[in-house]
Amino acid sequence: MTNAVSLRLAAVRELLPAHAVDALLVSGPENRRYLSGFTASDPDWGLLLISPEAALLLTDFRYQSWARQEVPDFEVLIYKVDLGESLGELLKGLKVRRLGFEPAYLTCWQHQRLTQAVAGA
């Protein structure tokens, strides 16, 4: 792991319990870049999911090679069907009951989908 990314991930993970969340969903492009190094500028090009056990970048197949090249410190996952469904499965697998997110980058519809996914975890 690069030193800067490692320190930033450690800082995020340290803050999770203080905010009573099990994981953090990062969808803002500037925050995604700061935490991971992924330079895609569009919010739709990828999400970070950070938990105590995982550092994941979710993107679609079009950005797979770009993401893997730029973000070696994160596990790059390609969602095949629907991002909400894929994220729901990940949240269940990580046993996330409370998810932190960036409200400025999450639509009401996306929030409802995530709430349903976390409720099913």
General description of the model:
This protein has 121 residues and is α/β, with parallel strands linked by helices. It has a single domain (3-119), classed as Creatinase/prolidase N-terminal domain (Creatine Amidinohydrolase, Chain A, domain 1), CATH 3.40.350.10. Helix content is 42%, strand content 17%. It contains five helices and five strands, in the order αβαββαβαβα. The chain has a five-stranded mixed β-sheet with strand order 4-3-2-1-5. It is globular and about 35 Å long. 26% of the residues are buried. The model has no long low-confidence stretch (mean pLDDT 86).
How many domains is the backbone divided into? 1
Q: Looking at the structure, what is the overall shape? A: globular
**CATH H-level homologous superfamily name:** Creatinase/prolidase N-terminal domain
Task: Write the element-wise H/E pattern from the N-terminal end onward.
Answer: HEHEEHEHEH
What top-tier CATH class fits best? Alpha Beta
CATH topology: Creatine Amidinohydrolase, Chain A, domain 1
Name of the CATH architecture: 3-Layer(aba) Sandwich
Amino- and carboxy-terminal Cα gap:
29 Å
Which regions contain 5 or more consecutive residues with pLDDT less than 50?
A: none
Helix-strand category: alpha/beta
Counting H and I runs of at least 4 residues, what is the number of helices? 5
Query: Could you tell me the strand content as a percent range?
Result: 15-25%
Q: How is the largest sheet built, in terms of strand order?
A: 4-3-2-1-5
Radius of gyration based on Cα positions: 13 Å
Largest sheet: 5 strands, mixed
Mean pLDDT, to the nearest integer, reads 86
Can you give the helix content as a percent range? 40-55%
Number of strands: 5
